[in-house]
Design a protein that fits this description.
alpha/beta, Rossmann fold, 2 domains, seven-stranded mixed beta sheet, globular, binds nicotinamide-adenine-dinucleotide, binds zinc ion
Length: about 375
């Protein structure tokens, strides 16, 4: 395995190949797995925009069976998993077949889940094509589907054989999805590194999103986020303790995401929901964990200027609380949050009650004066 020199992260479980030439290592890696047959899971967009680049770089995948699903968060369902299992079965997939997930976080979460279940587990590789996938979702072995509007309720920890991260895919990613992925980079920066956070503050979201993807700060931001996440996953794969730091912004974020799905034909994207969740978690961090006011203000200003506003009415709160209580990160009906005492200093398992949440939503609403309200097509 030493010949794969541009892998940036070496782990026992999942080597991560990173860089513009990372795809050139796929054939060698797949050959070492000796799969009896290979399947490529794509959605409509990644088939059109990403498959050609992959096949340009891989001879061995030209004969792979292609399984296309409709994309989007609603595709992360048990029904779709069953459809894919049936496709695998009909096409003769066996225990030693290989599944390659070419797409964003929906494809890697769903494809990983399918691989974990098929014949008690087949090998899979993630080739993330969205910023969300490259910076976060494709790494760490968490696989899942949603149950109704409850996020990620059915799933398992099931590690990919490898991950190939190539920024070339991001050239066709719509701006709104680039922004959504940026939310996870902001989250990671806030829990891991005050210096990078202060650098990020000098690049407002709207300007950053216009930077060419191969140049400027993107490469460092993605690489830093991948390295940090991988280091956490290596310490605590099953999220017993330290991996919970990665949930910063997610308890409220997941509730907003699920709730918006139940209310609107154009629900919040995962990253936009997480961005709102980060503002709320930063407020709670100020109230409960000593995050200085100046940091709370900087986080709030940075996010509100770049992400859409999803107004939260007091009437929405009971349903949101219900979703938070069902969130897999919370035990025995007690809401446990990850907070920060200052940028770079996360605290896990912080108990938060309903009144705290109401105050956090009141703060979130109050700091949005003048922001663009989220409605319908501006989320597309
Ligand atoms: N497992 C984890 O650790 C983890 C971490 C973070 C997020 N997630 C999950 O990831 C999901 C969100 O991921 P996402 O934002 O990538 O969503 P997604 O997979 O739906 O991709 C976003 C959209 O971009 C399109 N797309 C992807 N790559 C493209 C490309 N290169 N060019 C053009 N279009 C492209 C897709 O077809 C889709 O329409 C959520 O379900 C979230 O829960 C999982
Ligand atoms: Zn997330």
């Amino acid at each position: 395995m030493k010949k794969f020199s541009n892998r940036i992260v070496t782990t026992d479980r999942t080597p991560i190949f990173f860089g513009s030439d990372s795809l050139s290592f796929i054939d060698g890696f797949v050959r070492e797995l000796h799969p009896r047959s290979t399947f490529l899971l794509v959605d409509h967009n990644t088939r059109k925009h990403c498959l050609p680049l992959l096949l340009e770089n891989s001879k061995s995948l030209k004969n792979a069976h292609i399984i296309e699903i409709e994309g989007g968060e609603a595709a992360k369902s048990l029904e779709n998993a069953e459809k894919i299992w049936n496709r695998l079965l009909i096409s003769g997939a066996e225990r030693n077949s290989l599944l390659i997930n070419l797409g964003g976080g929906v494809i890697s979460d769903l494809g990983g889940f399918v691989a974990a279940g098929f014949k008690r587990g087949i090998s899979y590789i993630n080739i993330p094509t969205s910023l969300m996938g490259q910076a976060d979702a494709a790494i760490g072995g968490k696989t899942a589907v949603n149950l109704g509007h409850l996020k990620n309720q059915i799933g398992s920890f099931y590690a990919a054989k490898s991950v190939f991260i190539c920024s070339g895919f991001l050239k066709t990613l719509p701006l709104a999805h680039l922004r959504s992925g940026l939310a996870e980079i902001i989250k990671t920066t806030l829990i891991s590194d005050a210096t990078i956070w202060h650098k990020l503050l000098k690049h407002p979201v709207t300007l950053l999103l216009r930077e060419p993807i191969e140049t400027g700060p993107w490469h460092h931001l993605i690489a830093g986020t991948v390295k940090y996440k991988n280091s956490i996953v290596m310490q605590d794969y099953r999220e017993r303790k330290i991996r919970k730091v990665l949930n910063f912004g997610h308890t409220i974020g997941h509730a907003l995401e699920g709730y918006s799905q139940s209310k609107s034909a154009h629900p919040l994207m995962h990253g936009d929901a997480v961005a709102a969740g980060i503002i709320c978690a930063a407020f709670l961090s100020h109230q409960k964990a000593g995050l200085p006011m100046a940091d709370l203000e900087a986080i709030t200003k940075y996010i509100t200027a770049g992400f859409p506003y999803y107004p939260v009415d007091a009437m929405d709160v009971p349903a949101l609380m219900e979703l938070m209580i069902h969130d897999k990160k919370n035990n025995n009906g007690v809401l446990l949050f990850t907070l920060i005492s200052k940028p770079g200093y996360p605290l896990i398992n912080q108990t938060i009650n309903k009144e705290d949440i109401l105050e956090a939503f009141a703060y979130y609403n109050s700091c949005q004066a003048g922001s663009e309200q989220m409605s319908g097509s501006d989320n597309q």
